[in-house]
Write a structure and sequence with these properties.
By secondary structure, the chain is an alpha/beta fold. It has 13 helices and 13 strands. The protein has one domain: Alpha-Beta Barrel (TIM Barrel). The strands form three sheets. It has an eight-stranded parallel beta sheet with strand order 2-3-4-5-6-7-8-9. Helix 6 links the parallel strand 7 and strand 8. Helix 3 runs parallel beside helix 4. The structure holds N-carbamoyl-L-aspartate and zinc ion. The site of zinc ion has 5 residues, from loops.
Length: about 350
Amino acid sequence: MVRSIEIPRPDDWHVHLRDDAMLASVVAFTASRFRYAMVMPNLVAPVTSVVAALAYRDRIVSLAPTGFDFRPLMTLYCSAALDTADLRHGVESGAVKAVKYYPAGATTNSEAGGAAMADFMDVFEVVADLGIRLLVHAESTDPAVDVFDREAVFLERELAPLCEAIPELHVTVEHVSTAAGVEFVSAHPRVAASVTPHHLARERSDLLADGMRPDLYCKPIINSRADQEALIAAVTSGDAAFFLGTDSAPHPTTDKYGPRAKAGVFNAAYGLEVVAEVFHRAGCLDALGAFVSSNGSAIYGVEPSTERLRLERQDVPRSSAVMTLATATGAEVVHFGTEEAVFWTVNPV
Ligand code: NCD
Ligand code: ZN
């Protein structure tokens, strides 16, 4: 039996496109499938100024394939180097769409982030005043906190007080990964959340139980089965506060398979198929378009795309999907989602 659904061309509200040879190799996957892409600023020299964001945007556009309605949106990295006058100018000129806060040390290239949100109240006041969203990597960096509890602890200790201090601030909890995160979003009307394909489709036993899987290692860490179920329930319910952000985060295998794996899952190629499979298995394929196409566009104040994609599921899988990508400088990156991708074909209508 073939099951088929049509959706507006989706948006990716959280993606790492990297730079140089890696950017050149990965950008086509995002550009060929997604319309808006909220581009994360955690390059090795973080994107902290409007000039740097515009230069990065130019590199992205020049390396993206033509012929697609692909629209990268730029973010600024919240750090000591961020200048609020520059931020204001960037937002008012349309160059900058959001500010991203990383707790220093929480994840890949987060060293320039904050020790505490309370140190950046002046930036957050400007973000609220400009009416843009504050994008938050919500993970405690307190070494005393268990890695599986870090999202819940951060929300309670840092984000809840901030929401109380600046009630008009709009916040996106990025890559929400726990039941506690879902509850936090539901309890705060100005807080929404992006959700990744891998947090919806895997749980920590997949990461750890049957041979440790560096390709599933990301931050926030993929959490328990109960957390996964809470995420699936939130996104399949059609709740408008939850939308797709793939958090596609490519790393060369040399950085993944060493003694200390870097955090990040590369899902730009098959993330949509993974999400479709999650919705299919939950018996909620009809709710897919809300999650991947219309909820996020409403949160970010744009109309859903008028272009459409058709997703078709075959019960008999294709024999294989491409497993890896090679960059021009010889790096290899492993695709996430090949298991799901073999069931799906995706085409423009
Ligand atoms: C991201 C990366 O590699 O840039 N890694 C990840 O595990 N998600 C950074 C991030 O979003 O945390
Ligand atoms: Zn990310």
